[in-house]
Amino acid sequence: MWRNYHKRRGTCVMLSDSCGRMRSMTRTTIFFLSGEADLPRKTAPQKMLESPAVPGVSRSAVIAVAIFLVAHLALLIGLTTPEKFVFDEVHYVPAARQMLAPVMSQPMLNPMHPPLAKELIAASIATFGDNALGWRYPATLFGALAIVAIYLCGLALFSAQGPAIAAALIAGLNQMLYVQARIAMLDIFALGFGLLATAAFMHGFRRERPQAMFAFAGCLFGCAAACKWSGLFPLGVCIVIVAVIRLMQGWRTLFADPKPDDWYRPEVWPSLKLHHIALCFAVLPTVAYLAAFVPLYGLSLPDLIEAQRRIFADNTTTAIAGHTYMSAWPSWPLLARPVWFLFDKTAEDHVAAIVFLGNPLVAWPALLALVVVLRDFIVARRWDAFLIAAFYFGPWLAWALLPRTLGFIYYYLPAATAASLALVYVLRREGLPRWLLWAYVGVAAAAFAIMLPISAAFIGTSMKGFNRLMLFQSWI
To answer: What is the pLDDT of residues 182-236, one digit of tens each?
Structure first.
């Protein structure tokens, strides 16, 4: 499958290739906020990737803002119901309150997680008051940003507006994101920062000079980790991708039958040096991460080190006691064990429920789509299938490497959200009718509406309706 990549070429070939490179440098094909035309196919795999240009104001920027506003307003509806703590808000809201005190009391609450998400909740409480709106409002912002980030990922992968918008809609119609974006927990903050960073990395992946995009991604990954350490998982995916490509380039290897859509090319990133990689994926993430601790500890190095030691100890200790809703990572894609965030009987035959479950008509079809994505990555070597697979399996399977035995299905949120890209990838394949993708979006919307009474407490349902939606014994 591999053969040596030799530097020796004929003079004519070198001159022809150089002219081809000069011509390609004058064209712009990949836009971070454009994607108005499909990515052109190259006829010679040795040609340099085009240097992309980012328009100052584009239709895609307008669409991104529109997606954010619509998603944000939708997430705000009924946000303050209930007005009491829901699930793990009992841990994170008091920790945020503590940060608002003129002199922080001791012991510090919730020291097992980094402070950025709790600082954002504290800022919201200071703005909107110590109430349900103040606790949960920033989660809606980052939920909307996560949906916008999927749109940006879609532009990078599909280079077309329609599929990118469809991917954002599918991500938003998955109850996992909807539920998590309406509760004062840490995961939605890590998701928002992490997906925006992933979008920046995807836009830089096919660029001749990816340094700016990779540096932006590194800063955002540092912010994601400063919310919750699981934000490091997609950063690890990026590091592995860059390391593998650089290793293959060092071996001077290429595929025996190079194709324009190969995920690896020997000439990719000619100006990306080792110090650029270290800056983008180590230095900048570390600086962004540590900056979140400064409001709490100042520049005290011993305090910063002790904070990291405590977080590491608390997140790598094997849990002894079980939990009612705990589940193992292999079961998460199957939706085998949901988490009941809230279940209140509000009347004789009426309940207010918030169940972190996910949209079955998004989660289960996504597994079939991922099989196709893996096939195209392995057999056809497509770069878009490669990136989708990497950012789905990386953040999910990373949990298998941790010694913790206590896990919950909401840990699957980043992978489940990225799976919307796999669905769009499959439904827009050549030979399929264009209407099929939008018909599926309609099906996902119908399933979302059906599941909404157990996803939003302000709607509620009867006990009969609740039991009807609990399809399996393991969901109860």
So the answer is: 999 999 999 999 999 999 999 999 999 999 999 999 999 999 999 999 999 999 9
Q: How far is CA 206 from CA 29, 100, 209, 279, 384, in A?
A: 10, 44, 9, 19, 10
Q: Is the pLDDT of residue 50 over 70?
A: no
According to the model, what pLDDT value does residue 321 have? 58
Q: Report, in angstroms and rounded to the nearest whole number, the Rg of the chain calculated over CA atoms.
A: 23
Q: Is the pTM of this model over 0.85?
A: yes
In DSSP terms, 345 is beta-bridged to 351
In angstroms, the CA 19 to CA 22 distance is 5
Rounded to an integer, what distance in angstroms lies between the CA atom of residue 435 and that of residue 257? 34
Structure tokens at 138: 């920033």
List, for residues 131-175, the tens digit of each pLDDT value: 999 999 999 999 999 999 999 999 999 999 999 999 999 999 999
| SS3 category, 341 | strand
Whole-angstrom Cα distance, residue 148 to residue 194? 12
Query: What region, left, alpha or beta, does residue 350 occupy, with left being phi > 0 and alpha being psi -120 to 50 degrees?
Result: beta
Tokens of 164: 């990118």
Distance, in Å, from the CA atom of 207 to the CA atom of 32, rounded to the nearest integer, reads: 11
Q: What pLDDT is attached to residue 322?
A: 66
H/E stretch holding 278: helix 274-278
* Residue 447 C-alpha from the chain's centroid: 22
Question: Quick check: 326 pLDDT over 50?
Answer: yes
What is the token pair recorded at 185? 């927990």
DSSP 461: B
Query: Rounded CA gap, 290 and 45, in Å?
Result: 42
pLDDT of residue 405: 65
- Can you tell me which residue has the tokens 């990779």? 214
Cβ count near 291 (within 10 Å): 14
Separation of alpha carbons 74 and 409, rounded Å: 24
Share of the chain above pLDDT 70, in %: 86
Give bridge partners of residue 355 from the DSSP assignment: 340
**Residue 159 falls in which region: left (phi positive, over 0), alpha (psi -120 to 50) or beta:** left
Q: Please tell me whether the peptide bond between 82 and the residue prior to it is cis, using omega within 30 degrees of 0.
A: yes
Q: Give whole-number Cα distances, 273 to 170, 210, 244, in Å.
A: 38, 11, 14
What H or E segment, with its residue span, contains residue 234? helix 232-250
Q: CA-to-CA distance for 292 and 274, rounded, in angstroms?
A: 27
Residue 286: closest CA among 356, 335, 232: 232
How many Cβ atoms are within 10 Å of 230's Cβ, its own excluded? 23
Residue 2 token pair: 């591999």
